Amino acid sequence: MVVEVPRWLNAKMEIATKDPLNPIKQDVKKGKLRYVANLFPYKGYIWNYGAIPQTWEDPGHNDEHTGCCGDNDPIDVCETGSKVCARGEIIRVKVLGILAMIDEGETDWKVIAINVDDPDAANYNAINDVKRLKPGYLEATVDWFRRYKVPEGKPENQFAFNAEFKEFKDKDFAIDIIKSTHDYWRALVTKKTDGKGISCMNTTVFESPFQCDPDAAKAIVDALPPPCEPACTIPTDVDKWFHHQKN
């Protein structure tokens, strides 16, 4: 996975799919940089959050499990290990299960995984291992995703397979979903599907008409402004707690 947001941080960073070479950028809404609120008792993101490269949730595909189309992004990952990763870090993960969130009418899968280099990785082989070894973590994950947009004035998110703990599907189900999103990505990058503005520029997919010369890619990267350092100014209200009565 590619780590977009290290655990405990608030800046809503994402792979910018419409920019050449898809850099990680902070999301902007109405001209303002976006941050997730500290939705009590959670501080920022409660996992290392990111995405699996070479996947795409196709907005033209109605998912048979959720009845909703894809959200037009790579598939998301919640990495549950002990290490706080760095933004942009690429880590190998062990897939444990998956959660199907319905975000404003779109399918938004959340893969639950653990870093293969985590000291406890050998003890985690299925979604029930998370439930057993980290009691409360799966409930917190559902609660976080359900309510994290409420501070923005939006309604709570919903989930497919609703019932206590039935929201989470097992490892085999998760891998099938990942494989299907990889197939949608391959159709996208080989121009068999219209990405409608997604930049598929790449240096490694030989069958892709969007493949470019590495020197051209380097020139694009070199022309970008430097990444923001941790010392960059963060609005003071980002540290506030947001208290919300659960429905």
TrEMBL record:
It comes from the Eukaryota. Coiled coil: none annotated. InterPro entries: Pyrophosphatase, Pyrophosphatase_sf. SUPFAM superfamilies: Inorganic pyrophosphatase. Its cofactor is Mg(2+). Its EC number is 3.6.1.1. Keywords: Hydrolase, Magnesium, Metal-binding. Pfam families: Pyrophosphatase. The keyword Magnesium applies. Belongs to the PPase family. This is inorganic diphosphatase. It comes from Balaenoptera acutorostrata (Common minke whale). The gene is LOC103004117.
